[in-house]
Specification:
Elements (H helix, E strand, L loop, with lengths): L3 H7 L17 H15 L6 E10 L5 E12 L3 E10 L5 E10 L5 E5 L16 H4 L8 E10 L2 E9 L10 E7 L5 E7 L5 E13 L2 E11 L5 E6 L5
Antiparallel strand pairs: 1-2, 1-12, 2-3, 3-4, 4-5, 6-7, 7-8, 8-9, 9-10, 10-11, 11-12
């Protein structure tokens, strides 16, 4: 994310809820899935950072819009915070912002500026939902390793995260291809409450900055509406 999603994707890239069930009631695939999900949602950045870029939106009618975007991470001793800000000049420099507080073994908490919403509502007018930016699906109590396979040239574990009680406008499950070497998200698919494919997420390009590979562009697509959102980071050498 850098944003939370970018943090996960860049690694190729609840509170303890994933381990709530007694392990003797779970299959090996479920135990491994719970452990992997916990590792992913407890991963935290090492230092503060700020990334700027462009949020590009194409709606289902093919209409395009773009907005300046800033992602900031602040790391504290017991938690770390993510800030996502969009400024659009055609409305007197109005600002839309999202704040996410991450604390180990606790649910994320959310705050809004210039708007409000729920975890299953869009971030601004994009195809990213608030839950996507908070990686809420890794906090769900039902996690399972479905298989191991290659994806985009990477050896991956395929993790299924299942929502035990989805509302009509929520994901019922999310399937993520997790890179074995780096622990990053190579590809992800989200399914609606009826079990139909709703969204697909992919990191699109990387750039080497200061000797390290950084996520330069990522995309999320709504396959039901035909809309698409791309986030492009302006990566520069220090």
């Amino acid at each position: 994310m850098i944003s939370r999603f970018a943090l996960a994707a860049m690694s190729l890239l609840a509170g303890g809820g994933a381990m709530a069930a007694a392990t003797n009631d779970l299959s090996d695939a479920e135990i491994q899935g719970c452990h992997l999900a916990r590792e992913l949602y407890q991963a935290r950045p090492e230092t503060n950072s700020t990334q700027i870029g462009i949020l590009r939106i194409r709606n289902g009618k093919g209409e395009k819009s773009e907005f300046p975007f800033e992602s900031k991470i602040e790391v504290g001793p017991t938690n770390w915070n993510s800030f996502y800000t969009i400024t659009f000049t055609n409305q007197d420099d109005k600002i839309y912002g999202l704040f996410i507080k991450h604390v180990n073994n606790q649910q994320n908490s959310y705050g809004f500026r210039g708007g409000n919403g729920t975890m299953m509502s869009p971030f601004f007018d994009s195809d990213f939902w608030i839950a996507d930016l908070g990686l809420e699906f890794f906090h769900w109590p039902e996690q399972k390793i479905l298989k191991r396979e290659m994806r985009r040239g990477r050896s991956c574990k395929v993790l299924e995260s299942t929502n035990p009680g989805p509302s009509t406008n929520a994901y019922s499950r999310v399937v993520s291809w997790i890179d074995n070497e780096s622990g990053g998200i190579v590809h992800a698919e989200a399914y609606d409450a009826g079990g139909k494919l709703l969204k697909e997420f992919d990191p699109k390009s990387f750039k080497k900055v200061n000797g390290q590979w950084e996520l330069q562009e990522m995309e999320i697509r709504n396959v039901q509406t035909g809309s698409r959102t791309r986030l492009e980071f302006d990566l520069k050498e220090d």
